[in-house]
Amino acid sequence: MKANVDQGLCIGCGLCESICPEVFRMNDDNLAEAYADVTEDLQETAEEARDSCPTDAITIEE
Q1: Which of 6, 29, 54, 62 is the most buried (most CB within 10 A)?
Q2: pTM given for the model
Q3: CATH hierarchy code of domain 2-61
């Protein structure tokens, strides 16, 4: 699965990175980015990060 962060919606709160650092990190602009695929063992925490995003900037596609 692939996670995506809409940079136009991201406010750089870092919540996704704190929940699932294996998939999300903060870039040089202090906005979140998905840098790794969502593997089966990371699916639950990646979805938690998506659901916790205050601006709904994260999507996860199969």
Answers
A1: 6
A2: 0.95
A3: 3.30.70.20
